[in-house]
Structure formats: structure tokens, C-alpha cells
Amino acid sequence: MRAPGAAGAGVARWAASAPAPLTDYAGRAPPVHAYPVFPYDHQINERLAIWQGDISTLEVDAITNTTDETLMESNIVSERIMQCAGPDLKEEIITRGLECRTGEAVVTRGFALRCRHVVHTVSPKYVAKYHSAAESSLHNCYKNVLHLAREAGARSLALCVVSAPRRNFPPDVAAHVLLRTVRRYLEQHSQPQLVVVSSACGAELGPLLALAPLYFPRSPREADAARWRLRDEGGPEGEPVHPERRIRIIHNPHSHSADTGESWARTAREADAARWRLRDEGGPEGEPVHPERRIRIIHNPHSHSADTAEDDTSLCDEDAAVEAAAAFARACSPDTQLLLPPTAPAPHVARRTYDTDQ
Length: 358
Known about the structure:
alpha/beta
């Protein structure tokens, strides 16, 4: 185990790399962005390095391990880290019962490695149907790794390409997420002082080297040229942003600006046209309403307006209605009879036996 410090002196910084020839887009099409989203910053470029090689050999404060939920996945990066760290790393994972969910990160000691800490993270599997969810989860991987490395006091971090080929992530999408997240983190935090993006595979570094000038321009001209090539600027922390999923919140719905007049008029026209197409408006809470099943209640049966004159002939005898309701209750359940008032006995009428009886 090495002493803490800002190592990685043998790794060339991104600021020292030669910029590629720029393409003049001015006369072809208008830029996507009115101003450079990621301006030129020499100090931030000094804190980034893109390096090809074995991550376990780097002399830094912390390195990254891409693994699965059990922290025991068998891949090129994880196997190499486990081998160089010795059995103590695996013993710590088993003893502490460490687990890691997708998009999260866990810190362990480096043991026999040349680093002090190992930050383990789990990359999501890419499915085209859930593109936005996979992007957000991959962003969380890099953000949590950077956050835990800063909490551990690491001044230098070796960051591997978390999205391994077996995760089926498109290389360009993964490169955009990595570079955008690292750029925003370095803008907002002073630690770690150095982030080394490393990979043993040249095919993984190709998209990173091609897209790095968009997020880490090495000159003002390179930052200006990125206005045509950069599509998504992301959120404040580099997270993917999907405008179609935003919820529009109006703080003062009674105030309408001039640009909303046209949409308001269009909505009013559509609402007026819906009067001919909408059949059922429902109740106060949207429940279905059946007018034929409504019970008409007359609060004052002695007051009749002009439109209820036709209903006067349909009024039934009140005494007959009460007697019919009582008979129905007795027929339905014997227990209901206890709730009804006792029926008055009918008066006895003596029947005559003969016509001559008085």
C-alpha cells in the first residue's frame, strides 16, 4: 500500500495533448448551441488524463473496479484487480458481506495493490427499449465513484470504462456519459485533483479520444467548434436530460405571456370543438353518470315550477306508499319487522248471520 498523495506523474495530462485539426462548420449549418456549453479551461484539462494500460499498475490513491452485485464478477478488469490485491480483498468482501446494486458504488481497501482504495461499481445492462434508464444508471455509476473517492480523501483516481462490452452499451453513448459526468464533477469539486480514464483496450479509448474535445476543449477555437458537434449538454451534474419527459410547472397560472397567447387560443378552439364530440362529461370526480338511474328529490312538493306541471298527475298517495314499503320490508327479512312500528289492528266488524239480524 502506498502513501496518500497526488500521484500519476508518469501519465500525460489531457492539456498537454495536441489538438486535432478543426473543421470549419460556419458556412454549412447553424450551430446547435448559441455559445460553448463546455468552455475552454486549462486547469480542468490539467486534472484529466486518458491512458491505455493495466489499471492495477497505476500508482494512484484509488482505482475503479467494474463488477456485479456480488463484487465477484469474472471480467478482465476485476480478475486483474483481485489477483494483484491478493486474498485479503476477497476475504474483506466476504467477511463484511458487501453487495452493490446497479448504479451504486462500494469502497474497500487496496491491500497489495499500489493504491489505497478500490471503488467497486455495477454497470447497467443496455437495452434499447430502456435507453434513458440505462443512461441515467451509468451516470450514477461514475458520479458515485467520484463521490466516494473524494470522501475517502483520494487526490488521484483511476477511472476504468465501467460499461464493459458484455453490458451491450453503445461505445459512443457510454463515452458521452463518462466525459460529461467527469467534466461537471471537476467543475464543482476540487478533489480528486487528477482523474485518469484508463482502459487496456484501444477500442474503448477510441470514442473517448474522439469525443473528449467536446467536453474538454484545449483551445477557445476547439470550444467554439464543439457548438456544432455537441448534441446534449446534460444537467447540472452531467446527468442525461430528456425534454419530452419534463413536467411543466406554472407558478402563476393567471399570468400569460405573449408567447402563450397563440397556444391558449388554439386550446380554446379545441375545447369548443369538443362540445360536439364529447358525449359524457361524468361526475365531479370523473365517475360515470347515468341520468336514467337518478332519483328525483323534491324538497318542497307543494311548490311546482312551470316545468314540473306535467308531473302533478304522477304524484301517488303518501299513505299507500308507506304501506307498500312496510309490506316489502316484511317480505324481505323477518328482522326488518323489528324496525317498523306495530301495525294497528283493523276494527272488528260483526257479520250478520241472517238478514233479519240487527
